[in-house]
TrEMBL record:
Residues 25-158 form the Fimbrial-type adhesion domain. This is Putative minor fimbrial subunit. InterPro entries: Adhesion_dom_fimbrial, Adhesion_dom_fimbrial_sf, Adhesion_dom_sf, Bact_Fimbrial_Adh_Pro. Pfam families: Fimbrial (PF00419). The lineage of its organism: Bacteria, Pseudomonadati, Pseudomonadota, Gammaproteobacteria, Enterobacterales. GO terms for cellular component: pilus. One of its GO terms (biological process) is cell adhesion involved in single-species biofilm formation.
Length: 158
């Protein structure tokens, strides 16, 4: 934000002064971050292995925030959701099957939706490491076949 100011003074009766303040503001937005290449390929997954840690895959994405105004950012995953085992996860094309997005280190859930954000501090050009795990409703019997899901990864300043 650029602030410019100017003062104009004048005198009035009874020795009082009137001061007129004139401000000119230029409000600029911080440079945007760009996110690219976020994709996950699960390959063949046995229906009996859905939810198993062996099916965890890294979410590969790139983050470019050159010229950023701050290292304090937040991340959001927007997409269609479903609730599985009490967690809000990414909905897939198969009923009862979802994709749990989690942080790589602590396995903490990264909720999918438009209200939840994951705050993080950018280190170099690395955002938080994310993982994807296929999960299912405990009572769901999955049949073999393809599945897919899509989401939008949004990064903004805190």
């Amino acid at each position: 934000m650029l602030l410019c100011g100017g003062f104009v003074t004048g005198t009035e009766a009874a020795g009082t002064k009137t001061v007129q303040l004139e401000l000119h503001l230029v409000v600029t937005q911080p440079p945007p971050c760009t996110v690219g290449g976020a994709s996950v390929e699960f390959g063949d997954v046995l229906t009996t292995k859905v939810g198993d840690v062996s099916q965890t895959k890294p979410v590969g994405y790139s983050l470019n925030c050159d010229g950023r105004a701050s290292d304090y950012l937040k991340l959001q995953i927007q997409g269609s959701t479903t609730t599985i085992s009490g967690e809000q996860v990414l909905q897939t094309s198969v009923q009862g099957l979802g994709i749990r997005i989690q942080q790589a280190g602590n396995k903490q859930l990264v909720p999918v939706g438009i209200t939840d954000w994951l705050n993080f501090t950018l280190s170099g050009s690395n955002g938080p490491e994310l993982e994807a795990v296929p999960v299912k409703e405990p009572t769901t019997q999955l049949a073999g076949g393809d599945f897919d899901a899509s989401a939008t990864l949004v990064v903004d300043y805190q």
